[in-house]
Amino acid sequence: MSEATPTDEARAAVQQVWREESARLVGALTRMTRDLALAEDLAQDALVAALKQWPESGVPSNPAAWLMQTAKRRAVDQFRRTETLRRRTTELGQAREREEAQMPDLDALVDHIDDDVLRLIFLTCHPALSPESRAALTLRLVGGLTVPEIARAFLTKDATVGQRVSRAKKTLEGESFELPVGAQREARLDDVMGVLYLIFNEGYTATSGADWARPDLCAEAVRLTRMLAALAPQDPEVDGLLALMELQASRLHARTDAEGRPVLLEDQDRSRWDELMIRRGLAALERAMQAVAAGRPAGPYIVQAQIAAGHARAASAEETDWRGIAGWYDVLVQLGENPVVQVNRAVAHGRAHGPAAGLAVLDAVAGHPALAASHLVPAVRGDLLARAGRVAEAAAELDRAARLTGNEAERSVLSARAARLRGGRL
Q: What is the third-level CATH fold of 6-106?
C-alpha cells in the first residue's frame, strides 16, 4: 500500500475543511457582500486556490481562516472591477491594506461569524421561495450537500433540484441578510425547522456514499437548532426538534462497529449511547411538554421526540415500550400526511402487535408515488416478512431494497441479512 503524498494530504485537508466550514464561509461572505450568489462564487474560488496552493506551500495552521482571508481578498478584487460598487471597494480596500500592513490574526477572522449560518438559513427560508426551493437551497449552501444527494433526499431528479437552487439564488438577489424579527421570524420558523431536520436526517443516515452516517452534519444541525431555541424560546416545537435531534444523535457512536460497519438499533451496545445528549434531549422534551400542558399544541417534532425518548429510556432492546411508541406514531399520522412516517409506523406496529399488523399498515402506504423509488418499503417489508417466518419472500424484498438504496453501508446490511435468511438464520 503506497504512502500518501503531500498532494494527497493537502487535498484531504481541503475536503475536510470545506465540509466543516463551507456554510460559515458562505454565510460570512454573504453578510459582507450582501450578495448570496457572489458569496458562493468567492467561497468556491477560495476552495480552488487551496487545491492549487496547499500541495506546494503546505496546509496552513488555520485552514478555515485561510479560506476566509483568501475569499475576502477576492471580494475586494471583484468590487474593484465593478464600477457601481466603488464605495464598497474603498471600504474593503482600506481593510485589506490594514490587514496586509501587519500579520493578520487568522483566528480572529472567524471568531465573529458564529451566527452567520443561522442568518443564512433564515435568508434561504425566505417566503418568496417555495418550500421545496427553501429546503434545496439551504441543504446546498448550509448542509454542503451535492445536487444528487439533495435529489435523493427529496426523491426527485437531479435536474429538478439544480433548477430549484439556481432559481432560488436569483430570487434572493438584493434581499436583506439581517435576522428577521417579530412576525416575520415567527412566519419562517416552521420552514427553518424543516430544513434543519432535513440536514440532520442526511447526517444521521446518508442518502448516498460509503458512510453510514455523516456526524458532522448532525452536529451542525444540533448546533444550529440550539441557537434557534435561544432565539425562539416561546415556541415549544423548537424544543421538540432539539430534543428529537439530541436523542437520535446520542446513538451515533453505537451505530457502527470498530470496523465502521453499520449496527442496527436492536443490536447496538447501549453503553455507547451518549448519556449527556440523552439528558439534554429529555430536558428539552420536558420543556416542550410543560408548554403543551399550559395549552400549547403538541406538533410533529414533539411527538417524534416522544418516540425517540421511548428508545432512549429503554435499558435494552427487549425493554422497549413498542406499544407506547406505536401509540405516538398513531398521533403523528394525525398531524399530517407523510408516507415515510407511515413506513416507520409499520415497523412500530409490527413490533407492538405482530408482523401481520405491521404489514397491514405498510400495504396501505406502499403504493404512494413518493415511495416508488425508495428502498424503505421493501426494507421494512423484508424485516416484517422475516419476523413472520416467510423467509424466501423476506430475502427477495431485502435484495430489492439493497438495489434501491444509494448508501453503500446500508446496501451491505440489507444484502447480508438477505444472505443470512437464505442460510436459515434470521
A: Rna Polymerase Sigma Factor; Chain: A (1.10.1740)
